[in-house]
Amino acid sequence: MSKKHNFSAGPCILPQEVFEKSAQAILDFNGIGLSLLEISHRSKDFVAVMDEARAIVKRLMNLNDDYEVLYLGGGASLQFVMVPFNLMKSENGKAAYLDTGVWAAGAIKEAKKFGTVDVVGSSKEDNYSFIPKDYTVGSEYDYFHCTSNNTIYGTQMKTFPKVDTLMVCDMSSDIFSRQIDFSQFDLIYAGAQKNMGPAGVTLVVVKKEILGKTGRDIPSILDYSQHVAKESMYNTPPVFPVYASLLTLQHLENNGGIAAAEARNEAKAKLLYEEIDRNPLFETFCKEEDRSLMNVSFRLLDESKKETFDNAWKAAGISGLNGHRSIGGYRASLYNALPIESVQVLVDVMKNL
Ligand SMILES: *Cc1c(COP(=O)(O)O)cnc(C)c1O
Predict the structure, then answer these.
(1) What is the residue with the minimal CA distance to atom 2 of ligand 1?
(2) Could you report the per-residue pLDDT of 92-111, keeping only the tens digit for each?
(3) Which listed CATH number (3.40.980.10, 3.90.1150.10, 1.10.730.10, 3.40.50.300) goes with 257-351?
(4) Does the N-terminal peptide bond of residue 11 adopt cis geometry, omega within 30 degrees of 0?
(5) How many whole angstroms from 186 Cα to the centroid of ligand 1?
(6) Which residues carry this modification: N6-(pyridoxal phosphate)lysine (predicted)?
(7) Which residues of the chain have pLDDT under 50?
(8) Fewest CB within a 10 Å sphere: which of 12, 19, 298, 300?
(9) What is the pLDDT of residues 311-332, one digit of tens each?
(10) Cβ < 6 A, ligand 1 pocket
(11) Would you list the domain boundaries of the chain?
(12) Is 334 helix (H, G, I), strand (E, B) or coil?
């Protein structure tokens, strides 16, 4: 079976080299005569993996030692809970959230269980078709939470606001896809399975000085400070996803880093958006200025062409193009590992419809 053109939104395509090297590590890790899956997470071989996986994130993000890097279980969804647990004051806690999609709304829902949540901007009434920009966040808030890329609707924050409080960002679906000043954030999290690894591990990058200030009694497993103190080995980490994430980040670093990935991602997105704009059969769900470089959500304007289109892209070897069940239509996810050749195949199908 030849490799499909994989536009899946997540878990998603990773570099072929990552699939090969991680498959090899399952059979014989580092030539030690053991599988990666059967060695202790405290063994020197795995500790080296975790150390490098933590270090490479700081290099790629250009962050100093004020920050700590953690690889945690529970998905980005657990961070919807850990963030307020660790950052919202136990008395009169109050946080500001930007509501830009289903995931942002999920984070808001959980935070409300810990204190007051003010939604300072929302595009919910407009089917999340744009990123609200007209708001301010003052120092009365314990933190501000935003979602850099809205995986379902295909919108992306191109700039980030200056706020008078801690800045927290869910970067699950565009982490390492574009150059950002990461030092403007106090806490960043991302489920690995969208752009930096397989499912099963979540990256958390946190500025140490913000921890331990809520007056809350936090269960150890949910306490960032405990994970920091144990160098991300508080309990058994998800060893395989951590290793495959490390390989993915090494591949990124060896291929020009984030700057080169950004240039490739811009070229892919341009190719596809130009076709959507040119072709009278298609349109995006969102405002042009907020279009995502990672997830291109679009729909067919002439429903009678649906069957022909679906058959054509499937016949062209394309996989994972259906839109999220909540909005339908189509979604082409253009994550780092997707080659521009795959985008060209899709564009050719659209042209010929
Ligand atoms: C996928 C996604 C999530 C949820 O991730 P899980 O790891 O499945 O919990 C959260 N936020 C964003 C932006 C996502 O794309």
Answers:
(1) 172
(2) 999 999 999 999 999 999 99
(3) 3.90.1150.10
(4) yes
(5) 19
(6) 194
(7) none
(8) 19
(9) 999 999 999 999 999 899 999 9
(10) 10, 75-77, 103, 147, 151, 170, 172-173, 191, 194
(11) 16-254, 257-351
(12) coil
